[in-house]
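Format notes (please read before filing issues)

Several people have asked whether sequences and structure tokens are stored in separate files. They are not. Every record keeps both together, in the order shown below: the sequence lines, then the token lines. Line labels are part of the format and must not be stripped during preprocessing.
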Amino acid sequence: MVSFSGLELLATAVVALDEAFVVRYANPAAESLLATGAKSLNGQQFLQLFSERHELAKSLREARTTHWDYAAQNVTYARPGHEPLPLSCVVTRIDGTGLALLAELRPISKQLRLAREERIVAGEQANRELIRNLAHEIKNPLGGLRGSAQLLERELHQLRLPGARSDELKEYTQVIIKEADRLQALMDRMLTPHRTPRIEPMSVHEVLERVRSLVKAEFGIVIERDYDPSLPDLVGDREQLIQAVLNIARNAAQAGASSILFRTRAIRQTTILRQRYKLALELQVIDDGPGVPEEIQDRIFNPLVSGREGGTGLGLSLAQTFVQYHQGVIEFESRPGRTTFRILLPLT
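Then the structure lines:
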């Protein structure tokens, strides 16, 4: 008798098939996804559940023979009395159980979310290296530029020019010095994420309360709270997480939001960046601002991309970097009047 106790608690739908592709087991998540009880599924021909039977049968035979995983992005589950359900199907050969294949089923929307997370991580790593190199290249000439402006200012003082003319030229050198300092600070911000995180247990609500006090003092904006008091402590770098949430909240306030909501929830049996976790934190920052411009939504986490005039475009890029240091990810949904940034972090 094969034991499937390890699959009972999975949030992912899993179905076990025999050599003839007959369903011999369906976990509770599969029952929920397919809207059919396990007793009804057991004994059914797996291929009969989907529209793409001929193509699917060929792929299942290949998976059974070659021991390769088979991934199908467009398998359609024909639900009696319901709209067809597009699914992603990954089939793996299993040996030593008396069965042949294990099929993992996911709604296409969830599969797309996972693929998007992977693209964000890959893009973030490339952007991080590019920005780091760029910042190093810019910092050296900036020092020379500022030093030259200071020397020029001293020379102007020694020339003893008429007062009005001297003040005018000194103002020009001060512009150069101040702009060099501003760019220097920008370069330092680009390089900041590369320090080693300081790991310690913390309450995520203490992090949020710190951010709340900072944003409220700076913008005078209303920040509401909807916290889950049962959440365990989070292990991570306090300052990095404060900065990540602060960047998101500040963006909302600067974009013109009149209110922000901080919401925390515990999520069980979830996948973050292809890694399965028994327990995770979902932290939402919801605002009523104008939303993220549609033309930059696909690039919102890229450095130097900003929807606000005068913005540096580093806030969300740094936030994503800090969250990824904690094996997490940031997602967002935006429309005028409601933007939700969702931070997912594993809880161990």
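For reference, the curators noted about this record: The two ends are 33 Å apart (CA to CA). The chain has a mean pLDDT of 81.
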